[in-house]
Amino acid sequence: MKIKKVINNNVVSALDSDSCEVIVMGRGVGFQARPGMDIPPDRIQKIFKMDGKNSSDRLQELLKDIPMEHFQLCSDIIEYAKAKIGKKLNKNIYITLTDHVNFAIERYRQGMNFSNPLLHEVKLFYKNEFAVGEYALSLINERVGALLPADEAASIALHIVNAEYDSKIDEMTSVTRLISSILNIVEKYFNIQIDEQSLDFERFLTHLKFFAFRIFKHETIDVEDSGFRELIEQQFAPEYRCSKKIAEFIEKRYRLHVQEEELYYLAVHIKRVTRKSPARGGG
């Protein structure tokens, strides 16, 4: 493996056996090194192959300015997240999470901690990812002595979710806020308190995540069976009307259209999640 460019003493850009560009990390791997030189195998700690030149360039630019241990720390958090969640993560997470964590550590050392207004929602909607965030906080404290608040666990969790769904962080925030609004509409419409520990709630959350992403990405679904539509409008009438309320909210708040087919599936899930939910203030 030959060096293409030295980024700093511990990081270089190199060409692998297929002549593809990779990022190589290792203590002293770039020290007194020059382009064209072979990389001693015993100095290689990790190799990162990004999905494109733009991502590779962005990662290299980031690595110029941050401590190696911060990137190593985030790399270990990401590996833990993959094992914990069991899903493929967009490789850009190595850029976005490292940048966020590095900045969070800097803010901590300057005595500045930011709150996350979505802390409650993230803990509720993305339990596994929030658990990764909590693990990350313990690892950050252990390795660099920065005792970050729980709000940062939520922020890290959102970066993980963002990498799962291959979306942008602001889009992920919008999705989370929309899910919270929909749950509020459902509870108020039926005057109930949804059981957040139930399996029905977990199923509803899963549907709402994909529903919200389809809305923001302007994706559509097809329902060919007219009998299904009639069934929903007749036997799920209250839930269907609630779905219409949700569509009105989305069109008013986000200026986005919700197709009729989405409302039929939404009604089915609303029926399921509300069937055993107690009335507000009731038993």
Report on the architecture of this protein.
The structure is a single chain. This protein has 283 residues and is of the alpha+beta class. The chain folds into three domains: 2-49, Transcription Regulation, Sacy, Chain A (Roll), CATH 2.30.24.10; 68-166, PRD domain (PTS-regulatory domain, PRD, Orthogonal Bundle); 170-274, PTS-regulatory domain, PRD, CATH 1.10.1790. The chain is built from eleven helices and four strands. Strand 1 (2-8) and strand 2 (11-15) form a beta hairpin. Helix 5 packs across helix 6 (150-165). The chain is elongated and about 75 Å long.
CATH fold name of the largest domain: PTS-regulatory domain, PRD
Q: Any idea what the CATH superfamily of the largest domain is called?
A: PRD domain
Order of helices and strands: EEEEHHHHHHHHHHH
Query: What does the average pLDDT come to?
Result: 90
How would you describe the shape?
Answer: elongated
| Count of DSSP H/I helices | 11
Q: What's the number of structural domains? A: 3
Taking pLDDT < 50 over at least 5 consecutive residues as the criterion, the unreliable ranges are none
CATH class of the largest domain: Mainly Alpha
